[in-house]
Amino acid sequence: MLILGIESATVQAGCALIDHEGVLASVHVARGRRHAELLAPAIAFACDQAGVALADVSAVAVDIGPGLFTGLRVGLATAKSIATALRVPMIGISSLDLLAFPARFSNRRIAAVIDARRGELFYAFYRQVPGGVQRLAEPVVGSPDDLLSELLATADEHLLVGDGARRYAERLSEVSGVEFADQGLEHPSAVSLVQLAHAQALREEWEQPWDVAPLYLRAPDAEINWSVRQGSEP
Fold first, then answer.
1. Which of 37, 97, 136, 195 can bridge 125 by disulfide, Cβ–Cβ 3.0-4.6 Å?
2. Per-residue pLDDT averaged across 215-224, rounded?
């Protein structure tokens, strides 16, 4: 089974290919909010490097968020278009799960944190389990102070991963027992996406394209701005 993974939840966009032998190719690009321009060439390049044709793909995995609205919309639209054209199933995985997965060898409680802009963060907590990590609760959106309170509420040592943790590192480092992951783990990875998707595909845990939905956690910025403007009008 050949799986294509498409990741676009943050400022970094990427794709990867995996089969029964392992990861065949991966491409990650961070060029602001140019996901619509970058994803198609990145997918073509990954297929070329792996020596496969896009028509050979038997499932499409996609990062469903939470993350930046525009990036998620582009990634989901691209993934659904490919899956529909090829008539293959899809697998949706949370961006926070993708952040936490590379940190699965840590004995610390893992906090995956994405910068949600507007002074907010998307985050979730995880623990190491055999073969990976287990999410302890549903992802939430909150302020840095909300996350700080949750870190202080437990005596556990924490490993913080993600660009949100980096952005507010000075404030979050006030908590004892906090460690920050390497900068290489700052964004969700398409490699982690296809690795997790491959395990789900072996268990036949997939969806049809029309059933895959984004996990936004809050309204898009344009909708927020409209609501604020409407509320301020007499």
1. 136
2. 70
